[in-house]
Write a structure and sequence with these properties.
Blueprint: H1 16-19, H2 25-30, H3 34-51, H4 58-83, H5 91-109, H6 113-138, H7 142-165, H8 179-187, E1 189-192, E2 195-198, H9 199-217, H10 219-229, H11 231-236, H12 241-267, H13 278-288, H14 300-320, H15 327-354
Antiparallel strand pairs: 1-2
Length: 355
């Protein structure tokens, strides 16, 4: 006795669309790095609007934007470097080095300030190249390499400035040729009604937009995430890891040079000890903005929001009329709250994805 067995009709292969996991709008928003920082910024903004009446004016808001831009421009580069998995502790000091090289070279040799600015740019890019080259060729953590650079630049700033000028401050450069044109590029301002808008705010917006476009829309941006998240895998698929990371270090140095030029051409002179400690503000802005310390995650918009939080906090205390001696303590509390809110948003986002 035989039985005929009919084979079951083959199941249709699942389409690509059925394999995709479609996230809702809320999950997609919570997965973005800058969302936690945005929530924190809104809370801090509402707090100072309530606590500091002077904070509510348009003039105060644009002053906050200016304060944020002087931190945010360098923080954009530092954030991109952290996405690439590295740190640069020389980022604060190099802003002062850039201005000192420009001012002292031109004052001592009597040449146009444009020559000094270009020489300063080349020098800063060289420092960034050396940082990146040493990190990649020696395998020593960037924390240690750039800490060494930090001390070298800090000592050189003080020693060379005193050797050339006889004091720890540079000379007034406002009478040297080229000052007017460079001042317009790096340190000018204009009026909109009663509001003063500093050009660094516009430069900040431009740099953030450019960085966001590179990170999200270009192959080089993908390289930044790859070398920060999985450098071995990135190298295996042909990503130029060494060149990418050296380029990121040089980007930080370029943006440090830019802020150095702004400081020099706004105040005409520089104190050789300035800039120390700013490197932590850049890193804090990036972390508050959602950039991971372990690399491979973050974006430029989040870093900009992190810098804006710093600007609101630093000036909000002044507008509230509180004792400025509490500034660092209050700043620390604000930043901790911002990080906690950021962490909470990320955890909520992860839980909703798993669920």
């Amino acid at each position: 006795m035989s039985h005929s067995v009919q084979a079951a009709p083959p199941r249709p292969a699942p389409s690509d669309s059925s394999n995709r996991v479609t996230l809702g709008l809320s999950n997609r928003l919570l997965a973005r790095p800058e969302v936690g920082a945005l929530v924190a910024a809104i809370l801090i903004f509402i707090f100072f609007m309530a606590a500091a009446p002077a904070f509510r004016s348009a003039e105060s808001f644009f002053t906050v934007l200016y304060q944020s831009s002087t931190i945010g421009i360098v923080a954009v580069g530092v954030g991109m470097l952290m996405i690439g998995g590295e740190f640069d502790l020389s980022a604060g000091v190099i802003t002062t080095t850039a201005g000192l090289v420009n001012s002292m070279f031109c004052w001592y040799f009597g040449v146009n300030l444009w020559v000094g600015a270009l020489l300063s740019l080349v020098f800063c890019l060289f420092v960034g190249f050396v940082n990146g080259y040493l990190v990649m060729k020696t395998g020593i953590p960037s924390f240690l390499i750039t800490l060494g650079t930090f001390f070298v630049l800090q000592g050189a700033n003080l020693g060379v400035t005193k050797l050339v000028t006889g004091s720890v401050s540079s000379t007034d450069i406002s009478r040297i040729d080229g000052f007017g044109s460079l001042n317009k590029i790096f340190a000018s301002s204009f009026k909109i009604g009663s509001v003063t808008v500093w050009i660094t705010v516009l430069w900040w917006v431009l740099f953030v937009a450019l960085a966001a476009w590179i990170l999200q829309r270009t192959r080089i941006g993908n390289w930044f995430f790859a070398v920060g998240g999985a450098p071995d895998s990135a190298r295996a698929v042909g990503v130029p890891v060494v060149r990418t990371k050296i380029g990121l270090f040089m980007t930080v140095s370029f943006l440090g040079w830019f802020i150095g030029m702004h400081t020099l051409y706004r105040f005409n002179t520089l104190q050789a000890g300035n800039g120390v400690g700013n490197e932590f503000l850049y890193i804090i802005a990036a972390v508050v903005g959602g950039t991971l310390l372990t690399g491979g995650f973050g974006n430029a918009i989040g870093v900009a929001i992190g810098a804006f939080i710093f600007g609101m906090t630093s000036l909000g205390i002044v507008y509230a009329g509180w004792d400025p001696n509490w500034f660092k303590a209050f700043l620390g509390v604000m930043l901790l709250l911002a990080v906690l809110v950021n962490l909470y948003i990320k955890r909520m986002s992860t839980a909703r994805k798993v669920g």
